[in-house]
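User: Please predict structures.

Assistant: First:
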Amino acid sequence: MSNAIEPAANPTGADQTGAAKASHLLTVSGALAVPLRKIGPILFLGSMGFLVTASVNQTLIQQILAEWDPVTKVAHYSMISLLGSFTQMIGSVVFGALSDRTTSRFGRRNPWILGGGLVSASCIAAIALTNSFPALLALWLVGTTAISAFTAPMAAILPDRIAQNAMARASMIAGMGQMAALVANGFIVAALLANAQRGLLIGAWPIAIAGVVLFFGAKEKPVSSAEKRRGGIAEAFRSLRPPRSKDLYLALAGRFLIMLAIYSLFLYQLYLLTDYVGTTTEAAGTAMALFGVFLGVLGSASAVAAGILSDKLGRRKPFVYLASGTMALSFVPFLFSPTVTSYYIWAALLGLSYGLLISVDQALVVDVLPNKQEGGRDLGIANLANTVAAVLAPGLVGAILTVTGSYMWVFIVGIVLSIGSAICIKPIRSAR
C-alpha cells in the first residue's frame, strides 16, 4: 500500500534520532501509517454500521418469523442463526485471505469493504419483500456471507494502516463503535419493530453507508507492482492454510474462552432474571434496559483508559489479565445472592471487562500476527473465536442447566472460563 521507509544512508546520531521518530509512523507491516485522527472516526463508523445492521435485523427477522408462524418461529430462527454463523466463519477466513491477495488499483481491502456492505444491505432489505422461509434463509445466508466480506478486510485496516504505538487506541475506537451499536440497538429496534418489513428496508443500510464512507474516506494507495502477488489459483488456495503460529492460537484460545464466559449470561439475561432472580417479565425488561447503560458508560470509560495506557506503556497482556479477572469476579455475587443487585454488579463488571477487551485484545492479536502481509486471513481466523463462542454458548448453558438444574454451575463455569482465558495469554512471547 504505502511505501516502506528506507533506512538512513548515514547512521549518525541525528539520523538515528530521525529514524527513531520515523519508526513511530510505521505500521506493523512496515508501511507509513495513517494519522489516527483521520482514520479513527471512520473505524468507529465502520464498526458501528456493520453491528447495527447485523444486530437490529436479527431481531426484526425474529418478529417476521413470529408473524408468519408462531409455532415454527424458534426452529426457523435457530436454523438461520446456526447456518448464518457457519457462513460467517467460513467467510471471515476466505475474504480475509482474498483481501490479502487483491491487487486492485483501489487497494487490497477497500473494494471488499464496499462490495460487502452493499451486497449485505441489499440482501437484508430484500428479505422485507419475501414471504417464504426458503427465500428468507437464502437471502440471509448470502447477506451474512457478504457481512464477512466487509468485516474481515476491515479488521485488517489495523495492521495495514495503524502505527504500532497507536494500535490499542485504534482498537479502542473501533470497539467503541461496536459499543455504541449495542447501546443503540434497543432504541432502534423499538422504533422499527411495529412494522418489521419496513424496519428491514431501513435498518439494512447502515453497513452499506459505512462501506461507502470507508471506501471514499479512507482511501488506500494502489497496490504497487512490487507488492502484487503471483502464483495463480493454486497459490490462492494455499494461502487459506492456517498459519503456523503458537502465539496466534494462544491469543485465539484466550479470546474464545472469555467470550464464551460473556455470552453464557449475556444471551440468557431474560431467563436469568425471571427464572433465577425471580423478577416479572416487566421488571426484567427494566433491568435489561439499565444493563445497556452500564455497558455503555463503564465499557466506554475502561476502553478509553486501557487504550491510552496500553499504547503509552507498550503492553497488552496486563490489561487482558485485568479483563479476565474482572470477568471472573462479575459472576461471584450471583453465587451468594440471586437478586437484581447481583445482576447490576455483574452488568457493571461486565462493562469494565468488555471495555478492556475491545481496546487491548485486538491490539494483542495484531501484535502476534506471524505475517503482517497475511493480516486479513489471520485476523479472520482470530475472529472465529467470537462467532464460535456465540454459537456454542446457548448449547453450553442449556447442557449445564439440563444436567445440574441450577444456574450456580453456570456461574462457576463462567469463572473457570475467565481464568482460563488469562492462562492462555500468559505463554505468549511475541506480545508484552
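Second:
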Amino acid sequence: MAVPFEIEIAVEEATHATLLKEWGVDRIELCANLAEGGLTPTFGQSLEVVRATELPVYVMLRARAGDFQYSTSEKRQMLADLERLATSGIQGVVFGALNPNKTVDQDFCDSLINRAKKLGLGTTFHRAFDACVNPEKAIEFLINRGVDRILTSGFQPSVQQGMHGIAQTLAQAKGRISIQAGAGVNAAIASELWRTGIRAFHATARYWEQEEQRLGFEGRWMPDEEKIKALRHEVDRCSKT
C-alpha cells in the first residue's frame, strides 16, 4: 500500500492554478511577490485563485519582505488581512513571526492561530522557523497551539544543505506535527528527502518566460509543468517502494 504524502506548489496567479490538480498537486500556497519569498496576496488574487481550482488554497500572511520581526502596525495589518482573506474561500494561512532576539513571537502567533482556528482555517508556520534561535522550543510551542505543519529547509538556504536539520526536526516532531520540506525541492532530491522521513513537499517549480525586452516590463514567471509532474512521479514512486 502506498504511503500518504502531499505536494504543495506556490503560485501568484489564478491562471497558474488551473491545471495544478491535473499535474498531481495536492495544495496551493498563494503569495504575492515570490521573488521576495512570498508576501500577502490581495483579496482579488485570493478570490480568483479559489475560483480557478478545486485544490485547497493557503495564503501567505507576510506584511513585507525581509526579516520576520514585525512592528505593531504590521501585526495589525496582517490580522486585518487574515479577516478579509478568510472570506475569499481559502482553507488555510501561512505565517511566522519572531521577536528581536529571534525567538518565536508567541503573543502575536497566538493571536493569528486563535483567529485562524475560529475562522475554520488550517495553519502552516513558514521558514521563519529556520531563522529562530530555539527551534526545539518553537516546535513544542507550535504543537501545543495546534498548528498543522512547519515549513523548513533544515536551517539552511536549501533542503540539499539542510538534510541534517530536517532529520533533527522530524525526530523531535515524532509525527505530532507535519514537517514540510521547502527551498530547492525537486524530483532529483525527492528520494533523499523521503528517506529522511519527509512526506510533505513544497516547491515553486516555475520558469521565466522571456519576451523581447524593450521597456523592461516584458517577461513573466510561469509554472513548470515538467518539473511539477516529475516531482509528483518521483514522490509517488517513493511512496510505493
